[in-house]
Design brief:
The chain has 209 residues and is mainly α. The protein has two domains: 101 residues, no CATH class; 76 residues, no CATH class. The protein has nine helices and three strands; from the N terminus they run ααααβαβαβααα. A three-stranded parallel β-sheet has the order 1-2-3, with no helix packed on it. The longest helix is centred in the C-terminal third of the chain and has 18 residues. It is elongated. 15% of the residues are buried.
């Protein structure tokens, strides 16, 4: 995750330093050495200030890069139950996440998708982006399409275009279009259509067999 400016500096720039983050110019050395005391004093601050600090600490200007099933969360979200409860929805709602998928194994990011559904307090269009390396793997793609059939938000949202990815991305995007057009049909019927599509592309590119 991209490193941010210190909270103290950001608050000074916004004119909020006097709002309680640092008062009187003195430092309580006991508190500075005791995380429990620091948490307690932080949680005494007004909710509006705490939310601003959470955003300074957790929200990135650039997309948060994740690889496949990786769901590692920032350390702040592990600092205590109340901190996590207050901050986690900000992390998942106000960031854009870029998920890199290898070998079309789209179902690997389902655990992260569940976290998004659970903790986002608002739906943000475009803050959940897929990026695949496009090693041709029909088995993985079909499993991804099946998951998409049950949850349309697991569709391939964005693709890379390097190497010969242009032709491969066309295959993937068309497969999702087929599945989307048949979203009200039973999966067994959708799978039959997709397998017919698979035979056609395999005849043109043996790497899809």
């Amino acid at each position: 995750m991209i490193l941010r400016s210190s909270i103290k500096e950001r608050l000074r720039q916004s004119g909020d330093e006097q709002s309680g983050v640092e008062q009187g110019g003195s430092v309580d050395t006991n508190a500075a050495e005791n995380p429990a005391i620091l948490r307690s004093r932080f949680l005494e601050r007004p909710p509006e200030l705490r939310n601003r600090i959470y955003r300074f600490a957790l929200v990135n200007d650039e997309p948060v890069q994740l690889l496949g099933a990786a769901c590692e969360q920032p350390a702040l979200l592990k600092a205590g139950r109340q901190l996590r409860r207050e901050a986690i929805s900000i992390y998942y709602s106000d960031n854009t996440f870029r998920i890199k998928i290898r070998d079309m194994d789209g179902i690997a990011m389902i655990p992260f998708r569940k976290l998004m559904v659970r903790y986002r307090f608002k739906a943000v269009k475009g803050n959940f982006i897929f990026y695949t390396t496009y090693a041709r793997n029909w088995t993985n793609l079909l499993a991804w399409l099946k998951a998409h059939h049950h949850d349309s938000k697991l569709a391939c949202g964005r693709v890379n275009q390097d190497g010969d990815a242009g032709a491969v991305s066309t295959v993937v995007v068309q497969a999702f279009c087929i599945a989307g057009a048949l979203k009200h049909r039973r999966w067994e019927r959708v799978e039959e259509v997709l397998e017919a599509y698979h035979k056609g592309i395999a005849a043109l590119d043996a790497a899809w067999t």
